[in-house]
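Troubleshooting log. The previous structure file for this entry was overwritten by mistake, so regenerating from the original sequence record. Sequence copied from the archived sheet and checked twice against the printout by T.R.
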Amino acid sequence: MKILFIFPQVGSAGLWSVGIASMSAVLKKAGHEVDLFEIDDLKQQADLLRRIKENQPDAIGISTNSHQFLYARKIARTIKEVCQIPIFVGGVHIILFPNSLEKEEAFDGVCLGEGEEAFLELINKMQKGEDYFNTKNFWFRNDNKIIKNEPMGLVGNLDELPFPDRHIFRYFIKYRQKEIMPRFIFSRGCPFNCTYCCNHALKQKYAGLGKYLRFRSVDKAIEEIRDLKQNYNFRHIKLDDDTFSLNKNWLLEFCDKLPKNFDMTFECNIRPGSVDDESLAALKAGGCSMIKVGIESGNELLRKEALGRSISNQDIIELFKKAKKLGLKTYSFNIIGIPGETKKSVKEAVDLNVQLRPDFMQVSVFYPYPGTTLGERCQKEGLIRNDSADTYFKKSILELPTISKKEIESAVKNFKFNIYKHYDVKKAVLEKKEQLKDFVVSKPRLRFFARFIYKLVGSLLKI
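Regenerated output below.
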């Protein structure tokens, strides 16, 4: 069977989808053919239709999050206008809102959970000409009838899954002969209940279906790295597990075995309060070069009551101090525009980061994801005036009584500069240079003057 996966990422910078990569590996292992089409712009739909006409896939799979759901619908409708290939949709948004199938006639089925075993079963049934409408973990559209099947249990042993098929993504195709910086995820699930994240909602959906938090064995993790290194050149990896430091025994074993097998460094996500001195020392000895920490808000009350993160500023400060003492670089994640945000709380976030002196930062505008506790609260309180947004980095879709959209966007725009200027002038100037670059793009009539200033700033940075 031929399967075409579609990965919409309009306005996003995603290099790969771990869900698609995992399902592709499972399907290929079973002897099926897999192709992938990545969409950054809806103008590419004509190219997509040509690919479908040329390759004639037997089934199409679309993976979507909440940001990309509107695009997934448009893509599915475009395909259905020219052919009747079955279209199956999965991803976090669909898992939380499977009733989307009832509203979208272009979808032939939706996956309610982890898709590896269920989608393989569906494809195998299609290949044999069997009735696939009884496949667990799927809801199907059959004429005007919606068939709702029972959910399937979660994958109990991650070691049984083949390594994700990264090779179908254009990033890995493009940089096969060059040095890359790949991302790995060796676990699934998160035990914490941050109100803005999907994990607490997914845990409710998966209740009774198996253990939610699971890890690959360290030996399998090492083997996965080795497997990728046979085809690609890299010396540094990013570990995207939600809480890499949560399982201390796993961390200690990984940090012991990684340097014995490879000469490489890595970066990972650390939650304050979940890592002790022994773990931090092991991270440093094991090749960790940077820890990434969720600060989110500089106001402890907002962090606790709005975001569900009972983490004190002092715990964060202590973690950064210990990391720097060991020679670990630091990275802070920050969110602006959460319900209850004020100009004062924004300043508190800036002041906390100034005290932490992170080497790198990410600042995002809060996005009320549907199905999350905080997203539902925003809906109930009438804070959402626009039900969609392409990206969560620059613009707010909320109308907050405590801070304006303009103030939120200005705070995000100047956030890094207002921090770096206190301890890293070069990075502060680089931030202003990026702002000027955006200005050049947005003001065509002033491009000549803006380009002159942009080049001037660049030359000053070299001095």
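The CA atoms of residues 1 and 127 lie 6 Å apart. Archived copy saved in two places this time.
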